[in-house]
């Protein structure tokens, strides 16, 4: 899973050793425990890595889900909630291959029931890349 955050975020907490190391200038801090590990890399003004660069950082796997990156040339399932009143992306984005929605929508693409994760998962697994 790759999730692009439009706003800054921090998984660390002020006052913790890992936070202090980053504040002191460490470019990378690796935290680990019996349950998980995380590598934090400070950009310190460098450009954000491209999606392709981020994909190379992941361990080999069969499927990567990406949240965000609306303009990236990868197949997308648009999440569209008509009740929010925002325009759909699919008419302008050629990379949208289906729309998952919780309301009625007139769309030439496959329309998936947003509240049926099994249906969405089945589409993802069956969709040729």
From TrEMBL:
<feature type="domain" description="Molybdopterin-guanine dinucleotide biosynthesis protein B (MobB)">
    <location>
        <begin position="1"/>
        <end position="102"/>
    </location>
</feature>
<dbReference type="InterPro" id="IPR052539">
    <property type="entry name" value="MGD_biosynthesis_adapter"/>
</dbReference>
<dbReference type="InterPro" id="IPR004435">
    <property type="entry name" value="MobB_dom"/>
</dbReference>
<dbReference type="Pfam" id="PF03205">
    <property type="entry name" value="MobB"/>
</dbReference>
<protein>
    <recommendedName>
        <fullName>Molybdopterin-guanine dinucleotide biosynthesis protein B (MobB) domain-containing protein</fullName>
    </recommendedName>
</protein>
<dbReference type="InterPro" id="IPR027417">
    <property type="entry name" value="P-loop_NTPase"/>
</dbReference>
């Amino acid at each position: 899973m790759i999730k692009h955050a439009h706003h800054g975020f921090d998984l660390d907490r002020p006052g913790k050793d890992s936070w202090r190391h980053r504040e002191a200038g460490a470019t990378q801090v690796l935290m680990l425990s019996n349950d998980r590990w995380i590598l934090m890399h400070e950009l310190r003004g460098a450009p954000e890595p491209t999606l392709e660069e981020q994909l190379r950082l992941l361990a080999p796997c069969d499927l990567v889900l990406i949240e965000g990156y609306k303009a990236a040339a990868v197949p997308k399932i648009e999440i569209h909630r008509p009740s929010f009143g925002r325009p759909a992306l699919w008419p302008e984005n050629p990379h949208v291959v289906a729309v998952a929605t919780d309301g009625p929508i007139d769309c030439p693409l496959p329309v998936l029931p947003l509240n049926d994760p099994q249906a969405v998962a089945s589409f993802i697994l069956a969709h040729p890349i």
